[in-house]
Amino acid sequence: MLSVEQLLFLAGLLLLLGVLSSKISSRFGVPALVLFLVLGMLAGSEGPGGIYFDDPLLAQLIGVASLVLILFSGGMDTDWKLVRPAVGPALTLSTAGVLLTAISAGLFCVWILKFSFLQGILIGAIISSTDAAAVFSILRDKKVRLRKDLSSLLELESGSNDPMAVFLTISTIQLLQNGGGAILNVVLNFFWQMGIGFLLGFLLGKLLARLLSAISLPSAGLFPVFSTAAAFFSYGLTALIGGSGFLAVYVTALVIGNAEIQFKTTLVRFHDGIAWMAQIVMFVTLGLLVFPYDLAGVILPGLAISGFLILVARPLAVYLSLSWSRLKPSALNLISWVGLRGAVPIILATYPLLAGVDKSHDIFNIVFFVVLTSSLIQGTTVSWVAQKLGLAQEPEPKIPRIPLPLASHLDVEILQFNLGENCRWTDLKPEELHLPPGSGICLVLWERRF
Predict the structure, then answer these.
(1) Are 399 and 418 in contact (CB under 8 A)?
(2) What is the pTM of this model?
(3) pLDDT on residue 102
(4) Number of domains in the chain
(5) Residue range 9-30: average pLDDT?
């Protein structure tokens, strides 16, 4: 048993290594989640770290809490005006697309693994959704970014399709335990979960946004505490009455992030930092949970399932579910390629373990391997594929924003922007910048070098 001092030291060390590995990810284009998972595996009992961890329940708890924070951050940072045109395609992908992926991938698992029908469908359900943390990380950190309409569609899809995968996974486990009956109850439960999740998320978002815009707290530091509490409250309340907590969290954050609230910029940056910490903690924990030597026995079937998922199941789901849209084949191909799997499938793979489903350890190892290969193959090639398809665009110049301590006692926020000599903003007049309502320019300093 590790002492408190040892636990704190290891926690600090793993977080520091996680932050440094994110720098490697940004520099070399390797998805951060892969490095975090590898870091967890190296720290585990079969790696040099030697930390023994075999507690699926604790891993699930950490994973769900981390996902709540990640989805809340994603919702807070989503501009509704930009994503509104993509709502129809994104919601179609997050429902029908997930279902089609689960069925096709599940049937393939039945065939290649010789599992029962429901066991195969269970694997398909677990790996059916794209991962919000992985997609947000890839789309927002790449040097070459996707066209804005496609980026909005993919971010909205990844933020809203987790509830469908969770529902399919839990429902399939229940069918396995009940001998395959109660299909009607599953269908009715789907509409209840999604309806309650959306409705409560919207209402709570409106209520909490109004509170955040009007409430007076003793310290500005309490506003991030309030918004974090709002994230967990919206998830917990919705889940307690049988709704989709993940959907409620994302909708709540989407409503709050697009409302006029106090310290909005500070809150968005705070939750971005918290989301990064949640990613590191979640992926390192999931990496600790796996035993690398167990993966050796699933390499061949895992590669086959990954290949089918990437080349057949995801494209099939995209083309069928978006057949009504006006998207060109090149856009559909790119959407198919950005089907990154991440933490959600690994977390969902702990549900069969805790439920005592037959072959649950094999399912967990297969899912873990599929996530690794999907992230490595697709995550490292998104920019290249986008360029080949002609759907990439150069990102806006990255401008460091530095909060000034002058505003610490005021109900305002002052930011300092450093503009490079090649920034297109330097040639614009103040009225041409289209600044957000309620903001203005205090001072402009020109640095001339001779």
Answers:
(1) yes
(2) 0.80
(3) 94
(4) 2
(5) 76
